[in-house]
Sequence to fold (656 residues):
Amino acid sequence: MIKKYRQGAYYGIFFLFLSVAPFFLTDFRAGLLAKFLCYGIIAVGISLLWGYTGILSLGHGVFFGLGAYCMAMYLKLEASPSGIPDFMEWNGITELPFIWTMFKNPVFAIAAAVLVPSLIAAFIGYVTFKNRIKGVFFSIISQAVVVVTVTLFIGAQQITGGTSGLTNFFTVFQVPLTDSGTKTILYYVTVFTLFLIMALSFGLTKTRFGKILIAIRDGENRLRFLGYNPTGYKVFIYALSAAFAGLAGVLFVLQVGIISPEMMGIIPSVEMVLWAAIGGRFSILGAAAGAILTNSAKSYLSESYPEFWTIFLGALFLVVVLYLPNGLAGLVEKVKLRFAKKEKKEEVKHAGDSLVS
Amino acid sequence: MSVILMQLFNGISLGSILLLVALGLAITFGQMNIINMAHGEFIMIGAYTTYVLQQVFQQQFPDAFGTYFLLAIPVAFLVAAFIGLLMEKTIVKFLYERPSDSLLATWGVSLILQQTARSIFGAPNVAVAAPEWLNGGLSLAGMTFPYKRLFILGLVLLSVLFLFIYLYRTNSGRRMKAVTMNREMASCLGVSTRKVDSTAFAIGSGLAGIAGCSLTLLGSIGPTLGTAYIVDAFMIVVLGGVGKLKGTILAGVMLGIFSTFVEFSTSATIAKMIVFAVIILFLQWKPTGFAGVRVRALD
Fold:
């Protein structure tokens, strides 16, 4: 009981911090924080997929990008008085392509932003997990998905806007996007979405379903012998985390105002995994906090030392993997144990299960 | 007819370069279960080694410029192998039996290496001048086969030949094969698996260095040279079957030919998609790759 209470306290502090943050930050920083919150949503999905189920996906950039593009298409249409986006006019297209016409409807656009990524993930997951392609093989295939998607988006320039992507949005639901009021509302919508997704994920890990996910991570074969078929579970969790990433894409594009193939490429996709790894992939709160902290560090360092950032990022990967396999959440747990002076070896061993989750 | 032959040649040429990259990956992955995301950076190291040698020859020995490339091949191998060895000793050593962690850590190394190259040589691409005797081509039955591509093909064949002689005819190579087949058993019989692992990692990196050296013949080089090849090379390893060098060779050549033909009949963008779809379909039929063996073991 006490433990439950304590975890609630961690979540409470986290969200309290997020809800008061805009009052203390400049507009620019608040905008950045809103962007990082979107990343936090992705990190929660990766924590579920990687930390709990043991599936390492290097392709979440695609799902994030697809979600963002779905929303961006709607915004772009709203920003084009002639009914045809500007880059299409430059390409001499006079009639809106069929795919675009459906995105005039905002409900459809948001639904598609969540459904398209999860359906694609479900399909890729089904054809790989069914054949028991797992571990690093799956990671490699998910990375190939990124390469294919990015090439497609750049190649189909008439429809997607090519390398420059989609940008120059003005209004959402006829409300100007640059208004500070709109920004504040969007910020709190993002905080609320993050809250819902974390609550959902946390709840999920406490159910029987969540236990099966952990069982898949720790001993998939044993689970098979017990009569379970892991395929369905793996496909579901992969699709769910893809849906999270898609939703994050929607909120991202609303607040940042641009999406381009570069933002869904290999490097951003691997960075998403890093956020979860730094925060602690076995912990949902840790993953979300990791996304925010890593990106804050990134924006600080890349502003001050642009050259230094890449090396720092690389070193971060090494340090986390070699010294902090459970991320910051694991570190917090360790420090706490030391202070409490009741360090039991048993607990450290199963750090993955006893973390702040 | 000549068009088809020409495409076939281009395909084999592309496949042979991919093969050289993939062989190193196949060795490290098959034997040590390490996913080396920094493998592409060893290509880059090989390419920049060639570039440095070219600069040195241009300034110090302009008379012997024609021969610099022949010297660049072993030097690129050695430099890449040395850096690979260094990486194995300092980082990879701690990551055995943790494949997904190795993937992330080596990705970090790859970022560091890329940035280092950018700091030393600058972000823009640099061109490496090919020696005089590699310009031009062999005209045969109305077709021209560029000497450069023929040279690369020969280089790859030679590398593969040396690799197989090493693996099958030398004691060190046989130990490596033994460790790949059954690590515990080899260890029990007195093979120092740690030593074999470092050697394997160095050889794999060295092969990537040779690939980088040959890539300088085909275009200018930059700090991110390796990233273009790494994903394809991984697909070849998966297609070929883990730890099966013959499967890797077959997969490399097949992928090269196939993607060249698809690209010829459609476009580069569509080709990428089709090739990927075909690989996924193929894995539906043979999840363990070309040379995969059906075993009763679970993992």
In short: The CA atoms of residues 112 and 256 of chain A lie 20 Å apart.
